[in-house]
């Protein structure tokens, strides 16, 4: 073998032996990284030998080149494996620390609006009202016509909604549940129907395009406006205690005659605030005696039966109860708000 080739082959075995020894002694990822630098850098011993290739006789070069390439690849592979082994080991050691505190799983709660909804249901259930469920997708007939609101009636203006094509729409109030209940049941009826409603309203401190109502309906022989007032008073007392006052004002709804609206006194106690728009009162509900025309749509005889109905805004009640100054806060799901309940 040519002398120069012999020298390179000898050096390759020396480097291999020394590398193996040093690799076996590497005790950390850092040690291994240092070895990588030492053996594989551009000024390292292997690269140095590559530099000598040019001094070899032509016929010796391929053999020396092949052996050098093998050496370089072996060293690279061995170091990478060593570095990897430290990653695995340290990762498993670092990830298990028995002194760390346990993981904190935050406990959720019931949304304040639903707390209020549940309370409303309980109060009315206590007065003998059944809880009925309606559909958020309604027909034009149930949402409007059977409530004595024919097409082109001006009161439809305030009930612009999301139309789903054909006769379907997102209900603008819970009043259509009155119709469903009267279509399928005979008097006496005493029910509430809580749920979501939708309107094309621009959000502000007291409006939202999605909101909740609780509908109420009582139909029997001899039901009067005095019964309505009594039930509303009892509800206010149960829900808010003696501090809250109730006031009825005349109103108009096509499905009640006479119609009214009732307000509860605001938590600002008349000092005036954003919620009550400085009036000291918060409008809670529309109400009235069921219009005989509505009984006509469901085949109830208005000469035998009479009834009252109401539709309360649940957000309004929650705002009063928890002194929430802006309806939008209710839907933002900001934990700083929700955690207070
Ligand atoms: N549905 C009415 C609305 O959302 C509120 C209402 C008024 C409901 C009078 C009633 C009622 O049941 O009798 O504007």
- The residue fraction in helices comes out at 40-55%
The CATH top-level class label of the largest domain: Alpha Beta
Question: Any idea what the CATH architecture of the largest domain is?
Answer: 2-Layer Sandwich
**How many domain units?**
2
Uncertain ranges: none
Instruction: Indicate the multimeric state.
Output: single chain
Strand content: 15-25%
Mean pLDDT over all positions: 92
* Class computed from helices, strands and strand pairing: alpha+beta
CATH names the topology of the largest domain as: BirA Bifunctional Protein, domain 2
Can you tell me the overall shape? rod-shaped
Specify the CATH homologous superfamily of the largest domain.
Bira Bifunctional Protein, Domain 2
What order do the helices and strands follow? HHHHHEEHEEHEEHEEEHEHHH
Order the strands across the largest sheet as they lie in space: 1-5-6-10-9-8-7
Largest sheet: 7 strands, mixed
Bound molecules: 3,4-dihydroxyphenylalanine
Q: Distance between termini?
A: 90 Å
Produce a short descriptive summary:
With 341 residues, the chain is of the alpha+beta class.
Describe the structure.
The chain has helices at residues 3-25, 29-40, 45-52, 61-95, 112-126, 140-143, 176-184, 225-240, 292-298, 314-322, 328-332, 335-338; strands spanning 130-131, 137-139, 163-165, 168-170, 189-198, 210-220, 246-253, 256-265, 281-290, 306-313. The chain is an alpha+beta fold. The chain folds into 2 domains: 3-94; 112-338, BirA Bifunctional Protein, domain 2, CATH 3.30.930.10. It has a 7-stranded mixed β-sheet, with helices on both faces. A 3-stranded antiparallel β-sheet has the order 2-4-3. Strand 7 (246-253) and strand 8 form a beta hairpin. Helix 1 runs antiparallel to helix 3 (45-52) and helix 1 (3-25) runs parallel beside helix 4 (61-95). Bound molecules: 3,4-dihydroxyphenylalanine (DAH). 3,4-dihydroxyphenylalanine binds at residues 173, 175, 215, 253, 256, 286-288, 309-311.
